[in-house]
Design goal:
This protein has helices at 14-23, 28-38, 74-83, 88-109, 124-139, 169-174, 191-200, 260-269, 300-310, 358-368, 372-385, 394-397; strands at 3-7, 43-52, 55-64, 144-147, 150-151, 153-154, 156-159, 162-165, 180-181, 186-187, 210-219, 230-238, 244-252, 274-281, 287-296, 317-322, 327-335, 338-347, 350-356. By secondary structure, it is α+β, with helices and mostly antiparallel strands. The chain folds into 3 domains: 3-238, no CATH class; 244-322, Alpha-Beta Plaits; 327-397, mk0293 like domain (Ubiquitin-like (UB roll)). It is elongated and about 90 Å long.
C-alpha cells in the first residue's frame, strides 16, 4: 500500500494540491495527458519552482489555450469525463469530486443539481485542477489518502455573487463533517480544493504512522509574509499497528435473511477479525440488521468491497478503533481418546482464559452420539486437571503453546 496525507493547515486550493502531488513525484506529462483527454486543446499546464515565506515549493499555472471557453454545467462536465480516455480510477474519482462540488453549489443556491449554473464546475481551470489531481494520485499509486484539519480563512471575499463572508457558502457546505479552523485572514480554501480533499481523503486525521518516502510542497499564488501559502503531501508506506482496527457498519433491511450466515462466513474468510449482526428497527417500523465488521487496518478496502459485493447495502460507515487483545495460543487435552484444543488467552505468561474450542468438541459429540455440553464440560475439567486455569503461570506449568 502507498499512503498519502495532506497538510491543509495553510488552506487548500485545487492548483495547490495538484502542485504538491507533482512536487512529490507525480509525472507532469501524465497529468497533462489526462487533462487533455477531457478538454483537448483548451488549457496549458506549466510548472515552476517558487518560494513562499522562505520555503521552496512547486507552483502549477493553468492558462487558457484559446480566447473563449464554452460555459459548462455539471452534466456537460460529466459527459466529458464519461467519454474521455482515462484510467478508470481517474475517471471515477474525478466524477465523484465534481458531483460533490455540484451538490454543494445546488444546495447553496437552493435548486437542483440539474438546474444550477456552476461557476466552479464549468470553469476550465477547475477541470484541469480536479482531473489533474486525480491523475497525479493514480500516477503515484496512492491507495490510501487522508488529510488533516483545513484552514478556511476569515474576513470577506469578492465572488460572482457579490461580497461574501469567509468561508464562502459553498466552502462551508463542502467542509461539513470535517475539522476546520480559521488559520489566517482572507480566503484560504477554495471550493475546488475542498471538494477534492473531502471526497478523495478517507478521513480527517493527524498524520498517521507511515514510513515516509517523499514530501511534496505545492504553492498558492499569494506569498504571505510569515505564513507559507502551501499545501504539503507526505507519502509513504503505512506502519500498521496490530492494535489499529476499523469498524465497518451498514444498516440493511432488504437482504434475504437466509443469506446472512454465508455473508458472515465470507467476511471472516476475507480477513475480518470478526463479523456480526445487530437487530435494529428502521424507518416505518421495518425490521433490519446492522452488519458489523471488525477489520485490520490493511484489509479495510478489501472488506469494504466484500460488503458491497455480498449484500444489498448502498453505503458503509467506517470508524477507526484501537483494541487490546490477550496473547493467545493452543494447548490440547484428551477427551474419550480424542484431542480437543483448548484456546488459551494469557497476559505476561499468566493464563486469563482457557476455553475448549467448540467445533472439534461438537464433531466429537456427534461421533459419540453425546450432547455437546458433555464434551465441553469434560474438556474443561481435563484442562483444569492439567493446570490450565485462570491465574496459572505458563512457565511454572512447563507448557509451550502452539499458535
Amino acid at each position: 500500500m502507498t499512503s498519502a496525507w495532506i497538510d491543509c493547515s495553510a488552506g487548500v486550493a485545487g492548483d495547490m494540491l495538484l502542485a504538491a502531488l507533482v512536487d512529490a513525484g507525480a509525472a507532469l506529462p501524465a497529468v497533462r495527458d489526462a487533462v487533455e483527454a477531457v478538454v483537448p486543446g483548451e488549457v496549458v499546464l506549466s510548472c515552476e519552482q517558487v518560494r513562499r515565506a522562505g520555503l521552496r515549493a512547486t507552483h502549477i499555472t493553468v492558462t487558457p489555450a484559446r480566447e473563449s471557453h464554452p460555459h459548462r454545467a455539471w452534466h456537460d462536465v460529466r459527459d466529458l469525463l464519461t467519454h474521455a480516455e482515462l484510467p478508470r480510477p481517474v475517471r471515477d474519482n474525478a466524477i465523484a469530486v465534481f458531483a460533490r462540488l455540484a451538490e454543494a453549489e445546488a444546495r447553496v443556491h437552493g435548486t437542483t443539481v440539474d438546474e444550477v449554473h456552476f461557476h466552479e464546475v464549468g470553469a476550465w481551470d477547475s477541470v484541469a485542477d480536479i482531473v489533474g489531481t486525480c491523475a497525479a494520485l493514480h500516477d503515484l499509486a496512492v491507495t490510501d489518502l487522508t488529510a488533516g484539519p483545513i484552514a478556511l480563512g476569515s474576513g470577506r471575499v469578492h465572488t460572482a455573487h457579490g461580497e461574501l463572508p469567509v468561508p464562502a457558502p459553498a466552502v462551508a457546505e463542502l467542509a461539513a463533517g470535517w475539522q476546520v479552523f480559521a488559520g489566517g485572514s482572507g480566503e484560504l480554501a477554495t471550493p475546488t480544493g475542498l471538494a477534492a480533499v473531502t471526497t478523495l481523503a478517507r478521513t480527517c486525521t493527524d498524520l498517521p504512522p507511515i514510513r515516509l518516502h517523499t514530501t511534496g510542497v505545492g504553492a498558492g499564488t499569494r506569498d504571505t509574509p510569515g505564513r507559507p501559502n502551501v499545501v504539503r503531501v507526505l507519502i509513504g508506506t503505512p506502519e500498521v499497528s496490530p492494535d489499529e482496527v476499523f469498524l465497518l457498519e451498514s444498516n440493511i433491511d432488504d437482504l434475504d435473511p437466509r443469506a446472512w450466515p454465508s455473508v458472515l462466513s465470507s467476511l471472516l474468510d476475507s480477513g475480518a477479525h470478526d463479523a456480526w449482526l445487530v437487530p435494529i428497527l428502521m424507518k416505518k417500523g421495518r425490521p433490519a440488521h446492522t452488519l458489523c465488521v471488525l477489520s485490520p487496518a490493511d484489509r479495510v478496502d478489501a472488506l469494504r468491497d466484500a460488503v458491497f459485493h455480498l449484500t444489498s447495502t448502498l453505503g458503509v460507515r467506517e470508524l477507526p478503533l484501537r483494541r487490546t487483545t490477550l496473547s493467545r495460543g493452543w494447548a490440547h487435552v484428551t477427551v474419550h481418546g480424542a484431542r480437543i484444543p483448548i484456546k488459551i488467552g494469557h497476559r505476561n505468561g499468566t493464563i486469563v482464559q482457557a476455553t475448549p474450542e467448540f467445533t472439534p468438541a461438537a464433531e466429537l459429540a456427534a461421533a459419540l452420539n453425546l450432547p455437546v455440553r458433555t464434551i465441553l464440560t469434560t474438556a474443561t475439567t481435563a484442562a483444569h486437571n492439567t493446570g490450565l486455569t485462570p491465574g496459572a503461570s505458563l512457565g511454572s506449568l512447563g507448557i509451550t503453546l502452539s499458535t
